[in-house]
Specification:
30 strands; 4 helices; 3 domains; about 425 residues; Immunoglobulin-like
């Protein structure tokens, strides 16, 4: 979908979703368009922190963007950013009000792959740079587009620029609802006025909380419990999430030996093929613990440069659910799927094997994922359910991001505070 058509539909999607029986307690975040198949392994993170979500301070933060062009043709991709309100709709600001410099900037750093079966061109960019700097905090959409056709957007990513204008104290606790204490996590937090006057906080102050950078599971719009002096208390205010389970992983770093979780590795003339161990459903298992990287992915290999020497390989998943799931669909969800249920990552039930299967072309590295179940024909952007195949446990270690928006008198949703923490490190 072209850029202009995407933004014409943006508001309509939000309005329709806002009137649905919300799965996000009053919040509906419009889904981003899928990436163009010409690009792959789109990574956006704070500079030097490849596993961190793309949130940066307004005064000295920088983001690193990386992607691969698989087309075989050289294209000098351009990048632009759009300021958004707290609902991720384009704000009313003109780009000159939030950008210093040019409206767009080229991804001038590129390098061809070396020693790989699949040829690609690797592009990278650091923002802000001499050509483009943001001047306001807020929600931003980053778009990678064709310099010869500005309406052709090949990748879109969200990021947040924040200011430290209020102090945030946040932690994870047991839900007040006794029936949820073993399976869910409740977020308790307070905001403290420091360098910014929070006038009319019941109407102008808005807090959004999301786990593991999954915007389709974000909660927002809930009122504080009380206000006392400079403290705005949100304890027991209703920010309750499924705990989920530790992410599963796939290790594609080595091409000479099978790693943990890989049943078979084959080299053919065109590609390498990874056949993973069959996964089992974890719905009713006890919590097994373990560490993960909160659904993220990282590019790496055992011998060469991680970005230009890592090959693209075919990965085969198998999932044993004991029986097909009637009128429901199963998706692989992690950063590799933009942290949501994408059609390209939907599993297919193979009746001959009695298993759900999927294969996908991925770049060498390390990936986290969950199996997420959705009802057939549900609305676009529905986050699905973790509990059906992964189970849900209070002990699970999730990475929470808390974003504080304030309707600034200048006419935009300013991000005046942000916090990130692990629920059970």
């Amino acid at each position: 979908m072209t850029g202009s058509k995407y933004f014409q539909l943006f508001s309509l999607i939000w309005v329709l979703g806002h009137n649905l029986s919300a799965h996000s307690q009053g919040t509906f975040i419009p889904p981003l368009p899928p990436d163009d198949p010409v690009v792959a392994t789109v990574l956006l993170h704070p500079f030097g922190q490849p596993l961190a979500p793309p949130v940066v301070p307004a005064n000295d933060g920088s983001l690193e963007l990386r992607l691969d062009d698989l087309s075989g043709d050289y294209t000098a991709w351009e990048v632009r950013i759009r300021h958004c309100n707290r609902f991720w709709q384009p704000s009313d600001l003109h780009y000159s009000e939030y950008i210093r410099g040019f409206y767009s900037t080229p991804m001038a750093d590129e390098e061809v792959s070396f020693g790989t079966k699949v040829d690609f061109t690797h592009h990278s960019l650091v923002l802000p740079n001499a050509d483009m700097q943001w001047t306001l905090s807020g929600n931003y959409l980053l778009e990678v587009f064709d310099p010869y056709d500005s309406e052709r957007v090949v990748a879109t990513r969200r990021f947040v620029v924040f200011e430290d204008l209020c102090r945030v104290e946040a932690q994870t606790g047991e839900p007040s609802d006794l029936s949820l204490r073993r399976t869910h996590q409740e977020i308790h937090f307070s905001l403290f006025e420091e360098d910014y006057e929070l006038s009319d906080p019941y109407d102008r102050l808005h807090v959004t909380v999301l786990p593991n950078w999954r915007w389709d599971r974000a909660l927002s719009g809930l009122a504080p419990r009380f206000i006392k002096g400079s403290e705005i208390d949100f304890t027991r205010s209703g920010y309750v999430f499924e705990g989920g389970n530790t992410h599963r992983f796939v290790d594609l770093k080595g091409l000479e030996f099978t790693a943990l979780g890989v049943a078979k590795l084959e080299e053919r003339a065109d590609h390498f093929y990874f056949y993973l161990d069959t996964d089992e459903r974890r719905t009713f298992d006890y919590f097994g613990g373990g560490e993960d990287i909160h659904g993220a992915m990282v590019t790496h290999n055992d011998r060469l440069d991680p970005y230009t020497g890592s090959d693209y390989v075919w990965v085969h998943w198998r999932l044993d659910t004991k029986h097909p799931m009637v009128q429901r669909e199963v998706f692989l969800v992690g950063e590799m799927s933009q942290h949501r249920c994408l059609p390209e990552f939907k599993m297919v039930y193979d009746a001959a094997q009695g298993l759900y299967t999927h294969r996908h072309l991925l770049k060498q590295g390390y990936y986290n994922y969950h199996y997420v179940v959705r009802e057939q024909n549900c609305e676009e952007g529905n986050p699905g359910r973790l509990t059906d195949l992964e189970g849900s446990h209070f002990q699970t270690n999730n990475l929470y991001t808390l974003v504080v928006h304030y309707e600034d008198w200048e006419g935009y949703d300013r991000v005046i505070g942000l916090a990130q923490w692990e629920s059970n490190p």
